TrEMBL record:
<keyword id="KW-0472">Membrane</keyword>
<keyword id="KW-0106">Calcium</keyword>
<dbReference type="Pfam" id="PF01699">
    <property type="entry name" value="Na_Ca_ex"/>
</dbReference>
<feature type="domain" description="Sodium/calcium exchanger membrane region">
    <location>
        <begin position="283"/>
        <end position="425"/>
    </location>
</feature>
<comment type="function">
    <text>Vacuolar cation/proton exchanger (CAX). Translocates Ca(2+) and other metal ions into vacuoles using the proton gradient formed by H(+)-ATPase and H(+)-pyrophosphatase.</text>
</comment>
<dbReference type="InterPro" id="IPR004798">
    <property type="entry name" value="CAX-like"/>
</dbReference>
<feature type="transmembrane region" description="Helical">
    <location>
        <begin position="165"/>
        <end position="188"/>
    </location>
</feature>
<keyword id="KW-0406">Ion transport</keyword>
<keyword id="KW-0109">Calcium transport</keyword>
<feature type="transmembrane region" description="Helical">
    <location>
        <begin position="347"/>
        <end position="374"/>
    </location>
</feature>
<dbReference type="InterPro" id="IPR004837">
    <property type="entry name" value="NaCa_Exmemb"/>
</dbReference>
<keyword id="KW-0050">Antiport</keyword>
<keyword id="KW-1133">Transmembrane helix</keyword>
<comment type="similarity">
    <text>Belongs to the Ca(2+):cation antiporter (CaCA) (TC 2.A.19) family. Cation/proton exchanger (CAX) subfamily.</text>
</comment>
<feature type="transmembrane region" description="Helical">
    <location>
        <begin position="131"/>
        <end position="153"/>
    </location>
</feature>
<feature type="transmembrane region" description="Helical">
    <location>
        <begin position="234"/>
        <end position="254"/>
    </location>
</feature>
<feature type="transmembrane region" description="Helical">
    <location>
        <begin position="283"/>
        <end position="302"/>
    </location>
</feature>
Length: 434
């Protein structure tokens, strides 16, 4: 007993040193695992791992037969039940003169195509990594709206282009983000979801810059302060569009190269969740097929807008601002809500707000430049009512993002704000089309 008492201090010290050494081993092993996981996210480490294993990257080389690829891409998604409405719409177009039915069937037919475009882009991004994948998503994320806009420009429907792009911005900011906050808040009702406040504030600033670029040509028009009537407004719009394209390129570079937190989360999500179901060439082929099919249906859809407006007795502004963007943003809706329900709000904001920034800072000025090349005169004067609606919506979203937290109440308020916008355009007669 006396020996035990005398050696108690030594025993205690030995035990503490043993525990400390064991904890250090655990820390070293955890750090090793973390470093190994980060390294395996890089293309170089994946290539080395592939060579070491004497084969291809596990889970990254999926080769399917034509029938298997068709089953995965077409038959695995319930939304694809709407695909037959596309051919049916073309059939109705040639058999009847009912523009209302034709427009409705075309909308239903394009909805799954827009979602599948997003799916094919995500599958291709699995093979390119998060950086190139981000560029692919930026290019094809809103390809439906761009196709519709370019076809409308070709037909001289400049006002439809402006309203459709405006509607895409409003839909992503209010409806997509609102649904994400609401669904995420319902799933995680016992806690407050958080996201990167700094990145959210940056995105809000980008949206305000986009509003500023639309506001100045509008103010110039309504204050009648042009140096050269009719031409100054167009010159300002074209020069501003070129500046916006440069700003968007700088924004992409900053997001993809200069923000470690953004890249880290993208790499983790890409490594954990984005396991490809089809091969790289299958993704490219399906991407081309869906883009061609969307282009074909969009041509018919644009031709039927005016007829549908007369048939339904609904303003063209409502069809362009509300109905068309909801169809084009089907993929964004699904993706943003899915990420929010997995408590990955930063990715939800990247989809919703990032898409709004892409439309306002890239698609809008891109269409202005394209119309310039076509000999058309599209400008950034979106009219007073539309510009004011966008400005107020950006302010509302910025206020909800400034705390860096979300819940179902904020989501509900954004959804209700979108319903107010929809009701406003339902009773708004566009001056250029009245």
């Amino acid at each position: 007993c006396l020996s035990l008492v005398e050696d108690a201090a030594e025993h205690a010290g030995a035990i503490m040193f043993a525990i400390k050494d064991k904890l250090m081993e655990f820390d070293d092993e955890a750090e090793h695992r973390r470093l190994f996981r980060v390294e395996t996210n890089s293309p170089q480490r994946k290539a080395v791992f592939s060579l070491e294993q004497g084969g291809s990257l596990p889970g990254k080389t999926t080769k399917n037969s034509v029938i298997q690829s068709f089953k995965i891409v077409i038959l695995s998604n319930k939304l694809n039940l709407l695909l037959p409405f596309g051919p049916l719409a073309i059939l109705v177009h040639y058999l009847t003169d009912n523009k209302g039915w034709f427009f409705l069937l075309s909308l239903l037919g394009i909805t799954p195509l827009a979602e599948r475009l997003g799916y094919a882009t995500e599958q291709l991004a699995c093979y390119t990594g998060p950086t190139v994948g981000g560029l692919l998503n930026a290019t094809f994320g809103n390809v439906t709206e761009l196709i519709i806009s370019i076809i409308a420009l070709k037909n001289g429907m400049i006002r439809v282009v402006q309203l459709t792009l405006l509607g895409s911005i409003l839909s992503n900011m209010l409806l997509v983000l609102g649904c994400s906050f609401f669904c995420g808040g319902i799933v995680f009702s016992r806690k407050q979801q958080v996201f990167d406040k700094g990145n959210a504030v940056l995105n809000s600033g980008m949206l305000l810059i986009a509003v500023m670029s639309l506001l100045f040509p509008t103010l110039l028009h309504y204050t009648h302060s042009e140096v050269h009537a009719a031409s100054s407004e167009l010159v300002l719009s074209r020069s501003t569009s070129c500046i916006m394209l440069v700003a968007y390129a700088a924004y992409l570079f900053f997001q993809l190269k200069s923000q470690p937190s953004f890249l880290t989360e993208s790499e983790e999500t890409w490594d954990d969740d984005e396991v490809p179901e089809i091969s790289k060439w299958e993704a490219i082929i399906w991407l081309l097929i869906f883009t061609a099919w969307v282009s074909l249906l969009s041509g018919y859809l644009v031709d039927a807008i005016e007829g549908a407006s007369v048939s339904w007795n609904v303003p063209i502004s409502f069809i362009s601002v509300i109905l068309l963007p909801i169809v084009g943003n089907a993929a964004e809706h699904a993706g943003a809500i899915m990420f929010a329900m997995k408590d990955k709000l930063d990715l939800s904001l990247g989809v919703a707000i990032g898409s709004s920034i892409q439309i306002s800072m890239f698609a809008v000025p891109f269409c202005v430049v394209i119309s310039w090349m076509m000999g058309e005169q599209m400008d950034l004067n979106f009219q007073l009512f539309e510009t004011a609606t966008l400005f107020i919506s950006v302010i509302v979203v910025a206020f909800f993002l400034q705390e860096g937290t979300s819940n179902y109440f904020k989501g509900l308020m954004l959804i209700l704000s979108y319903l107010i916008v929809a009701a406003s355009f339902f009773v708004h007669q566009d001056p250029d089309q009245g």
